[in-house]
Predict the 3D structure of the following.
Amino acid sequence: MKRGFRGDEDGNPSKVAGESSRPPVQRPFLEAASKAAASRIEPSSRTADREVSHVATRASDDADSQLAAATRDVQPFDIVVVGSSQGGLEALQGLLAALPRTFALPIAVAQHRGAGLDDRLLEDALQRHSNLPVRDAEDKDEIEPGHVYLAPADYHLLVEPAGFSLSTGPPVSYARPSIDVLFESAADTYFERVIAAVLTGANRDGAIGAAKVEARGGFVVVLDPADAENPVMPEAAIAACRSPRVIPLSGIAPFLISLVKHAEARAGKRIPAHDKPPGDD
Amino acid sequence: MATATNALDLENIELELLLEAIYRGYGYDFRQYARASLKRRIIDFARDEQIESLSVLQDKVLHNAAVMDRLLLAITVNVSSMFRDPAFFLAFRAKVIPYLRTYPFIRIWHAGCSTGEEVYSMAILLEEEGLADRTRIYATDMNQGVLQKAREGIFRLSAMQDYTKNYLDAGGMKSFSEYYTAAYDHAILRPALRRNVVFAQHNLVTDSTFNEFHVIVCRNVMIYFNRALQSRVHELLHQSLVLFGMLGLGNKENMRFTPHEQDYDAVDREQKIYRRVK
């Protein structure tokens, strides 16, 4: 489960709902972290980017400066996790339709859904709009770039170092699949290499998970509540996070694409998380 | 000066030590469980018990068996419903029952049966197919507490509405209410349903094979294991299945990457019903 590099939690953990039950722990690991970073990132690109702060911005801000702020001194990302509920089908169709076949990251989606005899419906409805292959995740599936994985009806979907795992545990935030479960496991596994996107819904699922992604150094994108079929879920995520990027639906895919490109370009060669020592799960 | 590592690493160290302590103190082996979901359940438990760290939890577990009992219930996921995934039971009726009719006596193993919802579902199905009295169902779980509940066969009355729908979707032939008596807010299943059921403790992780079966149902049990442990359990299931016996997995599980992938044919690809052919 150990990884080569790990970000500082970079802030006050007591602000973050998911972390509040943990005791404060000293973090004398900054030095170790920057040493690890130095071994991975070109020295020239490092110094300049480190100065850039991580500020809350709205969609109206200039796109380039947003991107610069967004990418900090980031490593490339390993996964995009997406959460949605009411109104999610259309939002997801819009998002996926705007992502190219060449999109380089895996995308894991927790969309609240009922269990029925035919659980292919969501898969089919999204595939029709997507250039990327879409399917329900199965237990221990490998997480492959450019694939869209859906949390199956009536299961939680979790990200593990070796792939996905499923759980039939009790609903979390009244939901199974739960967005919080997906986001938190992604944050625990991929640290700062996670992009979490919260779309639309009538409840607060995803807020705690998004805060955790952020606390581990990952990046949070939220659908502009004004553009959401139901604003409750994105509003809750915005309230729970320190610096979420709030974007209208049409802007999310372009933003993800440039965020990923930018991070890749800065950090040089990316090292996939599943290239890890054996026995590490 | 020695320095501690960061919070997340520390938590992972504490988790490893706790699992080791549970194994050495009680013999329950969770060391090869899928880590993210295991960790989530243990941390939720610690929070519910107002225990401030996994190290403190380790101390309590080792010195207080009652805490271990509660933790065991929290770690093992015991959420089920009758005829969960009705399509599985529908496929079972269509594709497995005809094969079972060819046997004079049938042994079915529900491995990891939890509180018994699926066992009673199978018992009802066999009843309706006229096979109940030549079948013995062996229902096992590692946890004595849930086995006791399974033996009682008492479920929440409020769940019956959902179960009735599942039962009908699963090809049920009668009125579901014929199978239980309502008492206050509980539904007591007809005791006759378990006349051919044996409930027994068995741990898939640490125990070995104990019989040969014509059907093994092990649905949504191995999703909590990592791949290495899944492979070991598949070994055990393979040993416990007669040639041409049937294996039923959860509908989002699969045989890929298991050592016996080549030894099974898919009987129903969607519902994850496999037949042992080697």
Notes: Chain A touches chain B through 43 residues (CB under 8 Å). The first helix of chain A runs from residue 30 to 40. The two ends of chain A are 6 Å apart (CA to CA). Chain A has nine helices and ten strands.
